[in-house]
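Hi U.,

Before I forget, here's the chain from the pilot set. I'm dumping it here mostly so it's searchable later in email.
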Amino acid sequence: MTELAGLLVRRDGKLAFLPASIARSLLPLPRLTKIPWDCAQMTLVGGEVVAVLELAEPCGVLLLCELEGQVIAVSGLHAERVGLWPESELGVIVDGEQVSQLDLEGALVQFQNTRPTAKVSAP
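Structure:
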């Protein structure tokens, strides 16, 4: 059975798995800035401006992830454990229980589809 390396996180009380190929690092929650004309947020990490995807109320930790070659920060996840777990159809098996992989791609698409469009006024 193949084992997957990754991070177990809790989102709204539910355990989920993020593979190490997506989860890059955890850091203390830096200052987040809302973009005035949008509902999106951004922050400065290591000299780069990074978009922040808020999945739940911020919990003091920011998770840097890489999706399709782009760095994105995720807030609202509680980091539980890092390790190797047996792979399953939905994610991994932890202590005999199925833990689904967190669908960050889907969350990002949902955020993009529900954002209000910016109104640009002519001078």
